[in-house]
Specification:
Elements: H1 3-17, H2 33-36, E1 52-56, H3 65-75, E2 79-83, H4 88-93, E3 97-101, H5 116-133, E4 137-140, H6 150-171, E5 174-178, H7 194-204, E6 209-214, H8 215-221, H9 225-232, E7 236-241, H10 258-267, E8 273-276, H11 284-295
Parallel strand pairs: 1-2, 1-8, 2-3, 4-5, 5-6, 6-7, 7-8
């Protein structure tokens, strides 16, 4: 048998063996999870713990936050992504962190000077909240182009971030500029190439201004995920997962192979969070359990 055939068989075997049952014998206890699943019926999935896993709550909107936190905690997830200060007491009660704090809107961001005052005010407030609770990251966006050339957008974004970078350093919080696709989900969004965000980070010159590398969005725009992680990991403070096409489950139905991506992240020495941000089309908690299992490399 050829090496190529062996590789294909190994991958099929891995996918089969990382079914929900292998992820923690959860199938029965996770039935009808969106309605009434109890955390007590869930076994810990994370075993290796080399990736600090998180999850975006907005993808599981029907599940109350308190119950969702309990489920995540039992699985071995350490944080919830993209929440605000009103949610922090619930997270604290369950011993979870907020791995990324919301700030200003996505479309109107830092690439235009008229947005700076409002955006920076919201970023500052989020940094204050993050510092109070000991949380690591707040999110920011350059916004849509609206005719702004890329180089002007870089200069305007850098000028804004330089106004707030020192405050972030003082508070030990990282401002994360998110990479999104402009091809499918966010037409006209400016930061849709990794080189754009890297240039912003270099020009700001602060270790507290980095990139949120969303693997789903990056796959649509440029692909070459592992090589990009290897080359630019020093500029990345946070990762998002998602299956392509569709931004659904990160299982065998899509084109990205997340175990290899996670191993590449581990090899960089990364100690931050990887947050699952896909919208499940199957049972949501079963899908989350599967994602946690295959990313626990």
């Amino acid at each position: 048998m050829s090496d190529q055939q062996n590789d294909k068989l190994s991958r099929r075997t891995f996918v089969r063996n990382t079914s929900l049952a292998a992820a923690g014998a959860l199938a029965g206890s996770l039935a009808h999870a969106t309605d009434a699943v109890a955390a007590e019926g869930i076994e810990r999935i994370v075993k290796n713990d080399r990736i600090n896993q998180s999850v975006s709550k907005w993808c599981y909107g029907k599940i109350p936050l308190d119950r969702f936190c309990a489920i995540c905690k039992k699985m071995g997830i350490k944080a919830i992504d993209l929440l605000g200060p009103n949610d922090f007491p619930t997270l604290k009660e369950h011993g979870l962190a907020c791995s990324m704090i919301n700030t200003h809107s996505l479309g109107k961001g830092l690439n235009r000077e008229e947005n700076h005052e409002q955006c920076l005010s919201k970023i500052r407030a989020a940094i204050e909240a993050a510092s109070e609770y000991g949380y690591p990251n707040v999110i920011t966006f350059p916004g849509n182009r609206r005719g702004t050339p890329d180089d002007v957008g870089i200069d305007n974004t850098v000028a804004a971030l330089k106004q707030i970078a020192g405050f972030a350093e003082k508070k030990k919080v990282t401002i994360c500029l998110e990479y999104l696709n402009s091809k499918v989900n966010h037409p006209d969004y400016m930061f849709d190439k990794m080189a754009w965000g890297v240039e912003v980070c270099k020009k700001v010159g602060s270790g507290n201004v980095k990139i949120l590398y969303d693997i789903y969005h990056a796959q649509i725009m440029e692909g070459d995920i592992i090589r990009t992680i290897q080359k630019d990991h020093q500029y990345i403070a946070h990762y998002h997962t998602g299956g392509n096409p569709g931004r659904h489950e990160i299982d065998e139905t899509q084109e990205l192979y997340y175990p290899a991506i996670m191993r590449a992240i581990v090899k960089t020495g990364y100690k931050g969070y990887v947050a699952h941000e896909f919208t499940p089309v199957k049972d949501p908690i079963e899908s989350l359990a599967y994602a946690v299992r295959i990313c626990d490399v």
